[in-house]
Fold each of these.
Amino acid sequence: MSTLLEQLKTMTVVVADTGDFHAIEKFRPRDATTNPSLITAAAQMPEYAAVVDEALRFARGSAGQDASVAAVVSQAIDRLAVEFGLRILKIIPGRVSTEVDARLSFDTQATIDKAHALIAQYAAAGVSKERVLIKIAATWEGVRAAEALEREGIHCNLTLLFGMHQAIACAEAKVTLISPFVGRILDWYKKHTGRDAYAPAEDPGVVSVTAIYNYYKKYGHKTEVMGASFRNVGEITELAGCDLLTIAPSLLAELEAAQGELPRRLDAARATHMDVAKIEMNEAVFRAMHEQDAMARDKLAEGIDGFTKALVALEKLLEVRLGALGA
């Protein structure tokens, strides 16, 4: 009998949620996605020292002789994200997601400008924008930035997505991909309900992604759903059939080691016949729904704060490494 991972790949695009090239080489996903926390963790691994130093040299050359350390480090962070992306694209056949600075999450124009800068670096390295997804937090401002970028042919992955209002806004903006965070939703409910565990089918994160998937298929939205941030294999198998799932190497290993029947849980054809209420979305509705959804409100703010802290840690790391590089 085939493994759970092999069966999953027949109905869902499997994406590696990591900045570790070795793990990507091992599991051979179609796509890969990174975030500031993953990049910061990878940048501290001795095996990636050359990647970090190359990014710093590039940034120092681009920033100019008189540039401040802060200016060089700022450019180095973008370059490091692109360097990881370029190396990942040599391994995988599909796309890599590269994240915009989380501190720009509420600034539409700054997000657009940063996306242009990242895409320009990929283009200079000979990589088509078709192979890159610009990853943006699913704030109202982030969705508006993604809408503008998509019109230019720059494809986006809207992340830190926890609520139906975020998902609908993304779909109506014709965003390429969304990444609802299954495990982080579960974390919130466990903390606020006092429950230690949920059966996979009752897992609040699974329920949320299932509802978003069915809404999209019911109303013919082209935006793809990529479940993310998993805490256990049960969450993954309960979403078999989802457009894409981005999975950490440890859980990919569990799926590869496990055998048994894996039934399809999500089905686009079945969703078209479901009774799903349509929600008319605009900024007022978005903000009202966000305010009423304590989980989405808490987790979006927490996610932006977490990615910001990872970036600050990375800046400090790069400042030290820049000093060590010398002239």
Amino acid sequence: MNTPEWLKPGIYGVAVGAALVGIVGFTWGGWVTGGTAEKRAMSMARNDVVAALVPVCLENARIDPARTEKLARIQEIARYQRRDAVMEAGWATVPGADTPDRDVAEACLEALEL
């Protein structure tokens, strides 16, 4: 079978064009793989859950009878230890959970503006 002369450059053009479209799409076009999309969705969902639980933490802090002493202790210690202090205070333990949540404690600490 005789193939036309233009077929070989046409096939090369399609291959190069497809490669360029893929490169441009994934670098500047915002395309992502399914795994990356899933990771981003899980991260966004986690951030939304933490944001929804911060008012619970703040309420736990507000109703704590030893609030003043605990806040004074949290302010005395180094910044990198404050999240653990909020967790020890019990404010980051949401109803239905047995243990405090680190992300909720961090967000609660920011909301307390310490």
Amino acid sequence: MEIKIGSVVRSKTGRDSNGMFAVVGIDEKYVYICDGKERPVERPKRKNPKHISATKIIIDAEEMQTNRKLKKALKNYQSI
């Protein structure tokens, strides 16, 4: 599955494993993810794409503008 900005992903490894995150940036080697709480929008986590699994869910840019909106959007997908 293709990962793009706005994709909701689940972390497979690390201290944040099984957490749901939104992709806020992509470069050649890494994906930048945040959840609005432990990882705010201002300080995204750099993650290797091998260490995340993509879901079919994509949230729009409006829901990723603030940490509060992002937390609220991701809260709906925690049980997936």
Amino acid sequence: MQLVRYSKREPIIFLWFMLPYTVIINLIAIGSNTFSSFKNFGTSFITSLFYFGVIYSVFGAVAVLIKRRFPNDADLFRRIAIMLPLFYIMNILCVQGLYLLYEKLQWSNLNAKRNMQWWVTGFGCLASTILTFINEAAANWEKWKASVTETTRMQTAYNKSRLLSLQRQINPHFLFNCFNTLSSLINEDGEQAEIFLNEMTKVYRYLLKGDEEQLVNFDEELKFIESYLYLATTRFGNALNIHININNEVKHKKIAPLSLHVIIENIIYSNAFSKAKPLLINIYTDENSVVIENTIQPKQGMNILNFKEAFDSLITKYKMYSAQPVTLEENEMQQRITIPLTEDVEVAL
């Protein structure tokens, strides 16, 4: 069974602290006789070090229990206010146990001085106070380093997502296909060509804005994706079967820009579909999330690495915005992706 530690550096703190602590305690409790011979010093030191090691583990267990009860940074002074009185009482009992141990062993020339027991107790309380603050400092140092590492990782993911957004903005395949469709419509139906061009303008206006904002209104993202899907359905016709069912109550909430675009673009370009076997895409809201479901009809030889990279970036980015993660569930027939909708937050990057 692995011992629970107050901090990762606790074993090092124990070694550096306990060795001089044991020597000083013996010097106060026994006096200079503890240094009268190597045998006396070794016997008293090893015995008391073992004793204090056991006692330290008890103190450590109490400290961990208190930390579990009050784990937050804001609870620092409350933790200390509970720990120190308990440790002082435990020190009194600990010193009495130490004297009983000395008297029981009855070492030659190593008689414990009962008149010094309160000095020993006072030194033990002082040591407990210092050790408590050292362990708290070590634990908070580790938390701060972890926070800096996580912030750096988040910044990297955020910058990477902006780069991926830029790549999507200038996607030549999408632009080429749009112009091909528009060219066909101009010859066949001028009115529909004008509508198509208008929707295409809306899409590229939103794409060019990219990740200028950390979060956008879900309603704004939804209008963009409706324009994007209009372009797709105009091109593919009945081969795409799309259903959108959105609760108006969540339209004011926030979503990371282009989140839906990452998902839907991958669905369209990684699946094979036709009028005989259409691709089904269902977009709906579930409480405070938007869900994208689609049938899986994988296109042969399709490279999905770009999507995985974009999706991983989306997952990482959402850790900055929401306590709820982006989730992906799939089986052989269907894929289901859930993106949380959140309130407006300020993210420092």
